[in-house]
Automatic annotation (TrEMBL):
InterPro entries: EmrE-like, UPF0060. Belongs to the UPF0060 family. It is a multi-pass membrane protein. The lineage of its organism: Bacteria, Pseudomonadati, Pseudomonadota, Betaproteobacteria, Neisseriales. This is UPF0060 membrane protein.
Length: 110
């Protein structure tokens, strides 16, 4: 249950970060309206707050989060941007996710 809860929190955190960066990208690169910077700012603030909710130290949390971020970014590329991942995208995302699991769920002493 802890693993599912942690993974879900990582996914929500990654979505907040990606949205917070994607909206300014739309504004700067695609000519989207500047008011998109407001939800981008809110999303990035939520991202920072969400990182504090993880149950372990900051360094290990950030390292493990990076693996989930890669997986969510590839999913975003497919679902939002309409770019279907190729096998190398999928393999890279799975390797990153495996790295996250090793870092975050390895048995450790107190």
């Amino acid at each position: 249950m802890l693993a599912l809860k942690t993974l879900t929190l990582f996914i929500i955190t990654a979505l907040a970060e990606i949205l917070g960066c994607y909206l300014p990208w739309l504004w700067l690169r695609k000519g989207a309206p500047s008011w998109l910077l407001i939800p981008a700012l809110i999303s990035l603030a939520a991202f920072a707050g969400l990182l504090t909710l993880h149950p372990t130290g900051a360094g290990r949390t950030y390292a493990a989060y990076g693996g989930v971020y890669v997986m969510v970014a590839v999913a975003w590329m497919w679902l939002v941007e309409g770019v279907r991942p190729d096998r190398w995208d999928a393999i890279g995302a799975l390797v990153s996710l495996a790295g996250m699991a090793i870092i975050f769920f390895a048995p450790r002493g107190t």
